[in-house]
Specification:
Length: 137
């Protein structure tokens, strides 16, 4: 039975190397316009980030794509708008060193370190003080 199945799949081609694309940061659209992907922590917009995104989207009437990872991609951006968009979003705490563009303070810590036996590892590596209280140094 399997022999016949393998013969039926002879037309299958090898797949290209798989890569993950998160679409965060600046991207060329291919038509001279740009797109900008913004990381949205836990898929929730609130506060100054929400207000800044609204200002940018309404000012330039930008189409928006919400990704499967609950991030936002602003599309159809004219290159001359790039500096203003960056200024507006950086004022709301979005910083873009390279990729990904993350809101300030978006680092997460493992809350189950004590349950996983990792607490002693943090002491061994001298990171105990930096992991307590949820702060990272």
């Amino acid at each position: 039975m399997l022999t016949g199945l393998v013969g039926a799949c002879a037309c299958c081609r090898p797949l290209p190397e798989w890569e993950f694309k998160d679409y965060l940061g600046w991207m060329e659209q291919g038509d001279g316009r740009l797109a900008y992907g913004v990381f949205v922590q836990n898929g929730r917009l609130k506060g100054e980030l929400k207000a800044a995104l609204r200002r940018v989207i309404e000012r330039y009437e930008l189409p928006v794509i919400i990704t499967a990872n609950q991030n936002i991609i602003l599309t159809e951006i004219h290159p001359s708008w790039k500096a203003d968009i960056l200024d507006t979003l950086s004022g709301a705490g979005v910083r873009c060193r390279s990729l990904p563009c993350l809101p300030a303070g978006s680092m997460l810590l493992c809350t189950s370190m004590g349950f996983l036996g990792l607490h002693s590892l943090s002491e061994d590596f001298g990171t105990k003080g930096s992991l307590e209280g949820g702060s990272v140094r």
